[in-house]
Write a structure and sequence with these properties.
By secondary structure, the protein is α+β, with helices and mostly antiparallel strands. The chain has 2 helices and 9 strands. The longest helix is centred in the C-terminal third of the chain and has 20 residues.
């Protein structure tokens, strides 16, 4: 038997939400903010990914041999906070500059937020979380 260790970094974003961990398409558990989880697996090739709601990480393929230990780190989307601040900055900009034109207000407020929302549900769905395999110290 072999072991994998999964560390979830402490982050303010998604602080109170658990990430589900899937190995070979099967849910093996949940991981909370700042938690380290160890899972025992059989030797061989495996696929791992993490998921929260409709967002997930990319799948990582890895190989385990007997008595082997692999380590992974799960974090939220690295630029999500900065990107959200920028997207919500458009409505604030529209309010501060007090645009009188309805068209300009719609462009600055509604369209950027909707485009980001659509991106998160389509192309960015598998980039919401970041799952990284840590290299062994001897490598």
């Amino acid at each position: 038997m072999a072991t994998i260790k999964i560390q979830r970094k402490h982050e303010f974003l998604n602080l109170l939400r658990d990430y589900s961990v899937f190995i070979d398409g099967q849910k093996v558990g949940k991981i909370s903010d700042g938690q380290l989880k160890e899972i025992t697996l059989t030797s061989g090739n495996h696929l791992i990914f993490a998921k929260i709601d409709c967002g997930s990480s990319k799948e990582i393929e890895f190989n385990l041999v007997d008595n082997d230990t692999k380590s992974f780190v799960i974090t939220g989307f690295k630029n999500r906070l900065l990107r959200n601040l920028a997207s919500y900055g458009f409505p604030i900009l529209a309010l501060v500059l007090n645009f009188s034109s309805t068209i300009i207000s719609v462009i600055l407020v509604f369209i950027p937020v909707m485009l980001l929302f659509i991106y998160d549900l389509t192309l960015g769905r598998k980039k919401y979380l970041t799952l990284t395999e840590l290299k062994a110290e001897s490598e």
